[in-house]
Queue: 2 jobs
Job 1
Amino acid sequence: MSQAYNHEQIAAIIATQQDRPGALLPILHDIQDALGYIPPDSVAQIASALNLSRAEVHGVITFYHHFRTTPPAKHTIQICCAEACQSMGAEHLVAHAEQKIAVRKQGDCTVQPVYCLGLCATSPAMMVDDQLHARVTTEKFDRLIKKIGGGS
Amino acid sequence: MSIKIFVPGDSAALALGADAVTRAILAEAARRNIAVNLVRNGSRGMLWLEPLVEVQTAKGRVAYGPVSADDVAGLFDAKFDQGDKHALGLGLTEEIPYLKRQERLTFARVGITDPVSLEDYLAHDGYQGLHKALTMPAAAIVQQVTESGLRGRGGAAFPTGIKWQTVLNTAAAQKYIVCNADEGDSGTFADRMLMEGDPFVLIEGMTIAALAVGATQGYIYVRSEYPYAITVLNEAIEIARKAGYLGANILQSGKGFQLEVRKGAGSYVCGEETALLESLEGKRGIVRAKPPLPAISGLFGKPTVINNVISLASMPIILDKGAAFYKDYGMGCSRGTLPFQLAGNIRHGGLIEKAFGVTLRELLYEFGGGSASGRPIKAVQVGGPLGSYLPESQWDTPLDYEAYTNLWAVLGHGGIVVHDDRADLAKLARYAMKFCAIESCGKCTPCRIGATRGVEVMDKIIANQDRPAQVELLRDLCDTMLNGSMCAMGGMTPYPVLSALNHFAKDFGVVK
């Protein structure tokens, strides 16, 4: 993706949001939704549009776990590691997932911890891209990752 | 005549294949030439039965579950569309004991109606509370809330009426209503279920709050981990606006209230009210020093009512049925109901709205049916990641704010996470410290540094390095965090840590 293209697209996003009170988070969300991440070179542009310092924008981006500054893998697998999922074997599921993803030929997935998806009565839970899955056994995990990107 | 079939669109049902079940039902019905009116309802809260499919019959709604797409042809063969018997059949939904024994006030409509049908909402007593509020002076609305005895359902249990009174008394050109829907506690999902299952009740509750204190703008701050809730809320807000329930002139009353959803960004501490306000302002979610209270100087420095989803969603029924009706439920200074969320290693996990006073043992066994693994239950964490672990000796204490305070425990947002006898409480105590270290906003030292040191101390205890001295150090550290932190993040992390140490000393390798 070219720098110039980013600049224009980000300018358009900023323009639609910047008059809202507290516009920075909505802008960052829109940028990440559009590009998959927040390009570090866009910080100055955002800061100038909102009359903030670059440090303030950088501070916000790095404070929140949701925002990332590098392009994500093609597929993101978020496994809940909070207490309810721990009580149903999330730790074992994470170990299994990491091992499976490490040997996956396509190399197109990252596994991340997440702290609660609100599916605590149907643990362990995870989110693959934007799809939620509950009561995830290791067998169910293997079936699900086989489906994404067409087989492992 | 078409047959009405309900398949929940709730996140938990979706995570268990509800969309595939929906597609299978529609395809099978088309193949058999059966006219079906399929409604995506909220969840009834019996989550071990999801996806729970219901069919409208002359006798009432009949339930089947848990249904997978592969079961659908067989269900049609058994004439489930007539409510006939099937291996997955559960009989009349309303007669299922888990539901029948609840006191559903705030969740009265969840699972019953189509969440984004205003018509459905109105047909099930929706907007009755707002209609009453529109005829009352602001002070009288606040009076009703105060008299209902409602205390903040987010976890802090501060009397809601007093908060509202403070905002009402503070003169300002602009006031705000903020809904805290940053439900980050593990083991909790009541806010999510309500927003996905009955968004209008939250919208109505916030509108009542606006009338009560003279606010004209509202924000619902929803965590980014709840994308479906955000979609449903936005849809419902648009419908309410078009129908005149939101906007510059609500129901021609001359009073206006605008409402907007804002998305969080994966920060647990933003569930703390002042951090949430900072985040709404577009800043890092750093906790503010209090005073000033948000009620006096909140969002953008203006007087702000900031309440949890369940607190605000309880307003319509309080206004509709009156403070005395609501207050009649509960015990002591804990009035009304709390939607308990039974989670973790439990056979029948789900949402149980009950009056305060029920015991943990009743919830664990009479509702929950014991552990999911079939092994003995060892420890139960009540009130989220900052709540205490309770051993069996404490399970007969009624769930009541003050009774739990006496146990050095908290009810919090009503989350109950069950662990069986394989749980290692030293590891869970380490996790509590680690979670605090990850999520600390960094503003105050006891939390920012204390949590990191706490992980190190726990590592030494677990590795059996100089245990007695490390345990002493852990207690000392917890004392500093408890008394020196600015908010509940650092201030309550000692609850799970010390309750684990005090009640499960064996797991720490020290004998009490």
Job 2
Amino acid sequence: MDGLSQFLNAILAIGLSADIVTVFWATLLGIVVGMIPGLTATLGVALVTTLTFSMEQNTAILVLICVYIGAIYGGGRTAILLNIPGTPANAASALDGFPLAKQGRAGEAMAVATTGSFLGSMIGMMGLAVLAPWLAEFALDFTSFEFFWLAVFGVVLCGQLTAMDDPLKGWIAGFFGLLVALVGQESLHAYSRYTYGFTSLEAGFGLLPVLVGAFGCAEVFSVMRSEATQLVRARMGNVIGAAFSSLSYARTWVRSGVIGTFMGVVPGVGEDMGAWVSYAAAKRASKTPDEFGNGSVDGLLAAETGNNAAVPGALIPVLTLAIPGSAPAAVLLAAMVIHGLRPGPLIMITQPDFFYSVVAIVFWATCAMLVLGLALTRPLLWVLKVRREWLIGIIFVLCAVGSFAIAGRLFDVWVMILFGLIGFVMRETGFPVAPMILGVVLGPILDANFRRSLSLSRGDPVDFVTRPISAVIAALVLLMIVLALPPVRRGIARMMAQRHG
Amino acid sequence: MSIHRTDLCAGLVVSTIGIAALAGALAMPTFADRNGDPLTAPGITPGIISGVIAVLGIVLLLRAMAGRGPRDVPVETWPPGAALRTVFTIVTALIYGVVLFGQVPFLPATAGFVFVFTLGAELMHPGRSRSIVALCLWAALLAGVSALAIQYLFTDLFLVRLPG
């Protein structure tokens, strides 16, 4: 009950102050960012982070969460009308959204996407409010052994889930990210690793320049590499009526909301997998699975509910373990640290007010998304008419200025470009970028906890797997690796085929 | 099965990075001479991580040589004109980010970059309908307005000092 009253107080505090205006403009900004092909949620949150330096702590986090939620929602519009996901999280939405638009049901598709995103985000918010305090309390028992295994678990799982057909490349990306994070002065002996005399490397690679490079700059190169897009003729129809009718798919949005929230909690996986897994589950449960991919309302609703539910889900490990649930959440985590906040297991003891204000921000951003999404259906179409040739140059300038603004160092601009090139080459050669970013975030956690654990156990590796929680996480890591081995996968596929005749 | 060339190159690069980083980690001091705990030596974590990268890189290399693994890699299916657009984007981005940014005053550097980029990207667009004069005028307007707007946004509203 104490938590509920704190949550209601936080809702009133935002709703009855000037912050509510900030909620609306920041969510609208996020929607516009998400709608523009080439501007992902990660890039949007990273660029806006550089604009929040002079803001008050709580206002800055409010702006960033609103942009995050708005961008994941806005990307659905692009998926429906251009057949190009505005953000990677909306790829599954294009499968049914674009066929619906081609059938002249674009207005209905956008209404369904809006309702789905709203409901998904609300389910995710409830998950955040219930699970985060529990997880934070549970994590109070974690020692260096558990944090070490958690970092390994995050990289291995993210590597596997973001490269389902080729986990080897996902793991390489994840471990490469860990290695990148180790560049610079380490914390125990102040020894400079892999700096080769470059003083600029002493502090290591900044997280935000790396993120802006790997997602923003690489996106600039990828967008220019691909062919120009064609906007489908959009017939609006009765948007509000369609929004209400999608409420009848109760099973789909409840299932997708729960799946999306869970996928958000898994380190580094986030919205993309939230959408894909929800979509696959809806197809499996549907009585008309053949409609999926040909303009299924059920499919679009599942994808949009799943990706937006993953946003609050991704905030759960950020707030309680300081481990990001997705790439935009990694930027948000960095922004929280920049603004002097300390996410982690102690958050419910040291900053319970901040935790409940985050839940309230999610609530208001979700409401703003619903209102703006339904009220501005037609005006927002203008955003899609902006040509990429006019935008990409300006986006690159924002990436450069944003990277520079963090510490006023030209070196950060070069780091941004370097990781832009690395991210672009990785994408083009089939390596997922998300595990690398998670590796960069988890590297310092893994390094410090691994060496602390080695020292505590006097070098005995048995101690790493004899504590109950460590043993469970270690077993999960081993299981994931074994299940990804090609002979094991082939054996499982053979067994499944025999079982189904 | 033919050799998977993209994965072969990737495997070579990854295993080289892994081996080089492992050599770097092995060369790091243990601080045992200063009574430091060798189990907290700075090279331990990078050594293990780079070792894992080297092994994974070699596995990728062997898999590529055996012609196994997924083959739908984006770089092998580039649409027409993609190479020219990509090279143009990377070269202009490098000139702006490495040469101009910080060395030349922000306004002319940014306006010049946006002008050249917009004009070049439009000229490479196969569905271009405007004349070159109209494109130049539009690119100049966009360049001037965007450079001024970005400078105002960062320096006046968000109090960030811009370089150059």
